[in-house]
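Technical annex, item 7. During the second reporting period the consortium partners agreed on a shared format for inverse folding records so that results from different sites could be compared directly. Each record opens with the tokenized structure and is followed by the designed sequence. A conforming record, contributed by the partner at site C, is shown below for reference.
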């Protein structure tokens, strides 16, 4: 489902990613760990075309990304199949939880308003927030907002989900409820790459743990090993 081959990227003469190769099989969860500045976010952003790279290649969810600029059409197709959740939830403040989740299915996939809302409600149910469907993001806790953001990313039924430190802006109780949702997705067979500092999560949910250090893969192994 995901193959990264010899990925290399420099910024201002610094090699941010240096000959990174990894595989993520369908239905597996790859945890990406490593110190600050080691290139985790950059790698994740390369995986969904948010950043370009200088050498190497990526195949993800059937799409092939080469070095250099990506064609807009490719990015559009890629984003339907690869969902991303960030540390900051970036929900639309003027839309309810259900509207946030239903927006892309309506606008991008062309679902009717009622079909999109039904899909949105199903997903809110899945993240434990069905009763908050009509709440605005500002009235929700951080953990609830992040769960809405996860539901929103799932609304496109992506083949791969990418998470960049999804719990690091949250207190421990809220982080736990968000991790629970991610663990549940893992059990359901969702292919995912999760940048995390949470070793407990890596042990519970990840199939493989990949450790980056200064842009290179320092260690790679089975979770818990
Ligand atoms: N917009 C940018 N311009 C220039 N350099 C950047 C930019 N963003 C990141 N970098 C540099 O690229 C390197 C990798 O950064 P990246 O954000 O991928 O690391 P990270 O592992 O995600 O770190 P963290 O754990 O702090 O999120 C770092 O040296 C960082 O300083
Ligand atoms: Mg980062």
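Designed sequence (site C submission):
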């Amino acid at each position: 489902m995901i193959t990264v081959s010899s990925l290399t990227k420099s910024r201002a003469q610094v090699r941010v990613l240096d000959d990174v190769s990894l595989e993520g099989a369908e239905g597996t969860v790859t945890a990406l760990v490593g110190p600050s500045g080691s290139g985790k976010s950059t790698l994740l952003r390369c995986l969904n075309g948010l950043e370009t790279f200088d050498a190497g290649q990526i195949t993800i969810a059937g799409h092939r990304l080469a070095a250099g600029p990506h064609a807009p059409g490719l990015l559009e197709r890629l984003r339907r199949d690869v969902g991303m959740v960030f540390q900051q939830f970036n929900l639309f403040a003027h839309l309810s939880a259900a509207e946030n989740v239903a927006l892309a299915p309506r606008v991008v996939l062309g679902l009717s308003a009622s079909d999109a809302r039904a899909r949105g409600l199903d997903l809110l149910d899945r993240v434990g927030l069905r009763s908050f469907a009509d709440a605005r993001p500002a009235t929700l806790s951080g953990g609830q907002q992040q769960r809405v953001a996860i539901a929103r990313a799932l609304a496109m039924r992506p083949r791969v989900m990418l998470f960049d430190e999804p719990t690091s802006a949250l207190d421990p109780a809220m982080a736990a409820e968000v991790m629970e949702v991610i663990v549940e997705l893992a059990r359901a067979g969702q292919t995912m790459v999760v940048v995390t500092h949470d070793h407990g999560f890596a042990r519970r949910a990840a199939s493989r743990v990949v450790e980056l250090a200064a842009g290179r893969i320092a260690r790679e192994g089975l979770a818990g090993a």
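The pocket of adenosine-5'-triphosphate (ligand 1) is lined by residues 11-12, 16, 34, 36-42 (CB under 6 Å). The domain at 2-222 is CATH 3.40.50.300 (Rossmann fold). All partners now use this format for quarterly exchanges.
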